[in-house]
Amino acid sequence: MIRHSVILTLKSSLSPEDKTQYFDAVNELKQIPGVQKFEVLKQISSKNPFQYGISMEFESQEAYDVYTGHSLHTAFVEKYWAACVEDFLEIDYQLLDQ
């Protein structure tokens, strides 16, 4: 299992309509085959400067690779990512074998 998380801050210049369009586009990513446990989250802690989180899981590396190369994902990155995101941190986790 891979847990893919992106923690981000949107550009302050975005209008409320821009933010709505951005999150509508984010929500379309859950349609990509292999995406599980898709969540869009709002940051509430004052311990870091990020505003939002996007989290999802994949059963395997192959499923994650399908997601990253999928046309919905690449179109989202091209149209919305640079235009809307000020800063981000991307984390991909696997369970620790002990």
List the main descriptive attributes of the protein structure presented here.
single chain; 98 residues; alpha+beta; Alpha-Beta Plaits; four-stranded antiparallel sheet; 34% strand
- N→C terminal distance: 15 Å
- Note poorly predicted spans: none
Classify the fold: give the CATH topology: Alpha-Beta Plaits
Topology as a string of helices (H) and strands (E) = EHEEHHE
Question: What oligomeric assembly is this protein in?
Answer: single chain
Number of helices: 3
The amount of helix comes to 25-40%
Count of distinct strands: 4
Give the amount of beta strand, in percent: 25-35%
Major sheet description = 4 strands, antiparallel
Shape-level CATH architecture: 2-Layer Sandwich
Task: Give a structural overview.
The chain has helices spanning 16-28, 61-69, 71-84; strands at residues 2-10, 36-42, 52-58, 85-94. By secondary structure, the chain is α+β, with helices and mostly antiparallel strands. The chain has a four-stranded antiparallel beta sheet with strand order 2-3-1-4. The mean pLDDT is 96.
Give a brief outline of the structure.
The protein contains three helices and four strands; from the N terminus they run βαββααβ.
Layout of strands and helices, then pairs:
Layout: E1 2-10, H1 16-28, E2 36-42, E3 52-58, H2 61-69, H3 71-84, E4 85-94
Antiparallel strand pairs: 1-3, 1-4, 2-3
